[in-house]
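Suppose a colleague, Dr. K., hands you the sequence of a protein chain of 477 amino acids and asks what its three-dimensional shape might be. Before reaching for any lab equipment, you can write down a predicted structure in token form. Begin with the sequence itself:
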Amino acid sequence: MRLLWKSLDKMRCLRKRSTIPFLGFLITFLLFLNLYIEDGYVLEEDKRQLRETSVHPPSSERYVHTFRDLSNFSGTINVTYRYLAGTPLNRKKYLTIGLSSVKRKRGNYLLETIKSIFDQSSYEELKEIVVVVHLADFDLVWCENLVQEITRKFAHHIIAGRLLVIQAPEEYYPSLDGLKRNYNDPEDRVRFRSKQNVDYAFLLNFCTNLSHFYMMLEDDVRCSRNFLTALKKVITSREGSYWVMLEFSKLGYIGKLYHSKDLPRLAHFLLMFYQEMPCDWLLIHFRGLLAQKDVIRFKPSLFQHMGYYSSYKGAENKLKDDDFEEDSIDIPDNPPASLYTNINVFENYDAAKAYSTVDEYFWGKPPSTGDFFVIVFNKSTKISKIKIATGSDDRQNDILHHGALEVGEKLVGTKKGKQCSSYITLGEFKNGNIEVQDVDHKIAFEIECVRIVVTASQKEWLIIRSISLWTTQPPSQ
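The predicted structure, expressed as tokens, is then:
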């Protein structure tokens, strides 16, 4: 173990420009992560040696101070924060929203971002969130002036415990001089992105015990209306499935959702690799290390980048998320279900992908008359609306040319899986799509199955892009 840390120390000191050593370092870190976190087994002698072995150059005392407790990745980092406004409540909330902000050369959007979070939330939603702002600039005069503005505009949210403003003192930061210049970035750019990684790490560390879930936003973001309700629907739909990070925007470090229990490890991870690459790149590696291979991103996006000037040198930043919708997001409920089809599936475009709110789809080979695609609910439910879309932008002819939508009851087991023995037709597909409103007014029984039936063979392949269901009540017990 001593040899392992010596090799890590040597790799950091070499400060090579190439990214190849970093890949090897990541693999080593994965092994370390599995050993010390997942297995939860560390020999006492190894623990002692890890504490005694410095993984940083002795010339940087602050560096050592920050990293001296890396043997406990599941624990928080020992930082004494300054409370600039507000104090945490004793009760855990549902969601913490974290923002890190520094002084910009041109423009400041922080107050607009905070206002958007609160204005786009209902009174009931506000009871379940806490917003934490980390003022990560070392200019204390700027911080003091901004805190006064925040306090004046959002006093009632601070008093209610919904808004906290904090700062991690400069003495806790690792060295920001002489950093590795990966990707041929200029020194000031490396310093900026490296400090940003540490800013986020300290923010994540602070937020660990405030709520059950954590959402990272940037300080120049606009929110969709009732975004928390949409988030809760998505989280509920993922119950029973493993995930590390859910994404509600395709831009940067905006709209990334975590379990709060994972925040200490993510904070340590950002600190370990703070000088290697930008934070949004590190997130991809972190997600992979914790065995979430694929991106899980939801559409429409709930958050939009609104800043025109970047926090780095005030450069123009016109990035926009074209999947963002500001008005009420009508995200489907899609109650838990099993999916079956006798259509030949192409590669890994399986049936479940059509039922997910993630940007994926089912893709099958040409269907024949009588082929089916059926959704069997775990529990019978009342449905108010059904909307199904087939085909895609780049394969517009891979639609269901002739098909019917049915709902069923009286579930039975068959050789091909569970099916309902009785169905009622709700309508026919037109141009590959169908939408039926007021289903609960047209159907007297609680629905156990929803079925798509192919009514005429076709030569074209079939993409079922999305199946969206809205319920009128929770599934019956």
